[in-house]
Specification:
Blueprint: H1 19-38, H2 49-66, H3 69-72, H4 75-83, H5 91-108, H6 114-117, H7 123-133, H8 138-186, H9 192-202, H10 204-247, H11 251-259, H12 264-283
Helix pairs in contact: 1-10, 2-8, 2-10, 5-10, 5-11, 7-8, 7-10, 8-9, 8-10, 10-11
């Protein structure tokens, strides 16, 4: 089956904002804000420097104690990952690309793939293509690429763990903040009118702790885990494609092996797209 040439330098896509993260943040803030208004609480109560200090600075302090500096240097990059759209080669493009490469390698030999190396942006894929062009043993190629994936997963687990731990510490620090606020409120019972406001302010720390823990840090950790799984799936697909080309199997066989990585919906969409492209070519 003929395939259209891919533009290997642009297959990773453009950087854009991750809409689901922004939507989630807005909905979370609105839920708490509108909930407080409906309950008759003042939003001004959220402006509590002491509570913010205990929760935010306290969480940062706990995370610093829990992780070495080498791991904590990743945090700015991790925030970027959460707020930016993931850049992965679409599975359908990978299938078309490997099918085309299989045709080239069977017709001209694996050395013909050398011309494709410099046009590949993905470092993992480029490394794999270079190894099979260099004539490395198939088992060696498989082991090296799998070790690369294992190292990547370990880095991703560490990054997600930082946010998971922050989500664990924040609610507990919220309780600590409430206790501190109650100690301050109950230290002077002479002004009963002010006592109610002080007790109310004491629980703002608990609110902030729970909010940051379960609306920010834990969901961010989960997003990092999900993105890691998607990247691993793409890389496993690349390994399958590379080893299939190295084995010298037919382009149709390569295509069939890689299509197992697609969901039923993705397979249907790919079939429809190919059908439309075939009809357009016939009409031309």
């Amino acid at each position: 089956m003929a395939t259209r040439p891919q533009n290997y330098r642009t297959i990773r896509g453009d950087v854009s904002v991750e809409k689901s993260t922004i939507i989630g943040l807005i909905l979370g803030i609105l839920a708490v804000g509108l909930g407080m208004i409906l309950k008759g609480a003042s939003l001004a109560a959220l402006v509590n420097p002491a509570a913010i200090m205990i929760i935010i600075v306290g969480t940062i302090a706990a995370v610093f104690i829990a992780f070495p500096m080498q791991d904590l240097r990743m945090v700015p990059k991790l925030f970027g990952i959460v707020f930016k759209q993931q850049k992965l080669i679409p599975k359908t493009e990978l299938i078309n690309m490997f099918t085309e490469w299989a045709m080239i390698s069977r017709r001209e030999g694996l050395l013909a793939m050398e011309d494709k190396i410099e046009g590949i942006d993905d470092a993992f894929l480029k490394s794999g293509v270079r190894m099979i062009v260099d004539g490395s043993d198939q088992e060696f190629v498989h082991d090296v690429l799998m070790e690369d994936i294992a190292a990547m997963e370990e880095r991703h687990r560490t990054g997600a763990a930082i946010f998971t731990q922050a989500g664990t510490y924040a609610p507990t620090l919220g309780v600590l903040g409430a206790v501190v606020g109650l100690v301050a409120a109950l230290s002077d019972l002479s002004n009963t009118e002010e006592l109610g406001h002080l007790i109310s302010a004491a629980f703002i720390a608990t609110l902030l702790g729970i909010f940051t823990g379960y609306v920010l840090w834990h969901p961010m950790a989960n997003k990092l885990k999900q993105r890691s799984k998607k990247e691993v799936a793409i890389r496993l697909m690349m390994i399958e494609g590379l080893l299939s080309i190295q084995s010298g199997i037919t382009p149709n066989a390569v295509r069939q092996k890689l299509e197992v990585f697609l969901s039923p919906a993705e397979r249907k969409a790919m079939e429809l797209a190919e059908g439309g492209a075939s009809r357009a070519e016939e009409a031309a």
